[in-house]
## 1
Amino acid sequence: MTDPSGLRLVALKCEKCGSLLDADQNDVVYYCNNCDTGYELINEKDELVPAEVDFALPADVMDAEIIYYPFWVFDADVEISSRDASGTGILGDIFKKKGGGEDVTKPVEKFYVPAFDTSMENIKRLGLGFTQNQPDYETVKKDKITGCIYSSKDAEKIAEFIFLSLEAEKPDMISNISYDLGLSSPKIVGMPFYRTDGSGLVDGILGIDL
C-alpha cells in the first residue's frame, strides 16, 4: 500500500500465520510469538524477508529481571592475509594470519554484533567479548524480541568497525593490513541480560557489565 507521500506502508503481520508482529518504532527485525517465525525489514525493498531468530539460555541464573537483547551472529571465516606493524596487535591473538603458504586454523567461528540501542563503546565491548570467547549456549524459542535497530547489512559494517578499532587501540604502529571478514548466514540471537540494582545490566552468558 502506498500513501500520497509516495511511502509504501508495510503491514506488520506474520506471513506464515497472519498474526500481528510486536515491534518498537525503530525495529528492523520482528518475531512472531505465535509460530516462532522471524523477519527482517529490508529497506531497499520495503519488504519483510525471513530471518532466523533464537534466544540463548543464560549460563548463570540470577534472581533479577531478565531482558533479551538482540545480537546479529554471523558465521565467520576471517582471514588476515598481511599485517605490517611495529609490534603484535590483538588481531594476531584472536584471528590467525595466513602465512607460509598454509592456512592456519582460525579459532573464531562466529562474529557477534550487538543490534540494540546502546553506546558504541558497549557495542565494541560486547562484540569483542562474545567474538573472542566464542561462548557455548543452548537456544530456545521465546515469546518476544524487540529493540533490534540494526539490519544485517548495518551489522556487517559495525563488525568491520569493531575489527579495525581493535587494532587502532593497540600500542603498536600498524602501517598496513589486508583482511577478509568473510561474514555469512546472519541470524538474530536474543542474549539474556539481567537488570541489576539501579539501571545497570549484566549479560547472562559472559557476565559483562554495562
Note: The helical segments are 91-94, 120-133, 152-168.
## 2
Amino acid sequence: MADSVTFNGFGKQSLPFLKALGFYQDREWFKENRPIYLREVRGPMGDLIEVLAARFDKAGIPLKGDRKNSLYRVNRDVRFSKNKDPYVTHASAMLTRSGTKKENGFVYMHYSNERCFIACGFYGLEGAEMRAFRELIRREEKKFAGIVEKLEKHGYRFEEGTPLKRNPRGFEDVAGEPLAGWIRMRNHTFMEELTPEIFQSGEVAERMFEMGKRALPLLEFGWRAIDSVRED
C-alpha cells in the first residue's frame, strides 16, 4: 500500500554509482552492481513517486504515479541514437493524470551528478495539441500571464529552451511580448534547480508536492487545451 511507503532520500552511494556507471557503461559491470542501483537509486525513486501519488490523491490533485509505470529506465534506447552507451547516468520519473510517462502535463524529477532539478508543465506537444495550446494562450493571454506570474513569484524558472525563430503557421499576426515569446516556445515548463543534498533527504518530496499544488492552474490550462482536440 502506498500509505505504508516512506521516502527518506536517495542513498549516499547513488551519485557515486551513477558516476561509475558513466565510466564503465558495461553490462557485466551493471549486472554485478545492480543491487547498489536498486537500493540507492531505483528503490528510493519508487518510494518518492508513490509517497507523492498518495499525497496528491489526498489533496485532490489529479497527479498519479507508481514505481512500475512512472520511473524511466536506466537502459538507453540506442536504436536511433549515435550514442550507443547502454545506460543513462541520471534518475528520472514523473507523475501525470494517467500515471503513465506518455501523458503530458506533469511533475517531473531529474537527479544526476551534473544536474538536479524538478519541473512541471508540458513538454514535446506536437500537431493539433500544440496548436490548441498556443491558441488558448492567445485567446486567454491575461489568464496565462497570471499563471506565469504566480509560478515565477514562487521562484520557478520558465524554461524557454530553444524557441522557434519566427511565429508558427497560423500565428503570424501575433506581436508583442511576452505573448509572441510564449507562442514561439516549443515547450511550456517551469523548473526549480535543487542540490544533491535535497534529493538525498525527504525534502525533495515536499518540494515536488508544493510544485504540484502551485502548478495545478497551469496543468488544468494545458489539459483544457489538449483535451479539446483529443478523440474520445
Note: The mean pLDDT is 95.
